[in-house]
Amino acid sequence: MTPVALLVLFCAAMAAIAVGRLVVSEQREYVDIGTALVVVGITLLTTLWVALEESMLTTVERLLLAAVGVCVVAAGVVMIVRYWDQSAGPTIARE
């Protein structure tokens, strides 16, 4: 197992923790959702890194993985920046 594959496992564990915290949280803040999106996006991009090193996916699949990863990270960063000052304010209540 390459060191990059270990990085993917670590990122996947961190993504599972971030998403799990959102699932069990009574009140979710937008910054927490943005952070979870960034962690999931980084996991997708490290998966792309492994796919490039190991020649696992086709070119179209690599481009799709890269596009999805970048979009998820960008959405997370936008959400963090947009709601940074309001992190103590509005939350998303669990119903």
TrEMBL record:
Key words of the record: Membrane, Transmembrane, Transmembrane helix
Source taxon at top rank: Archaea
Membrane spanning stretches: 30-51, 63-84
Protein name, UniProt field: Uncharacterized protein
Organism: Natronorubrum bangense JCM 10635
Origin organism lineage: Archaea, Methanobacteriati, Methanobacteriota, Stenosarchaea group, Halobacteria
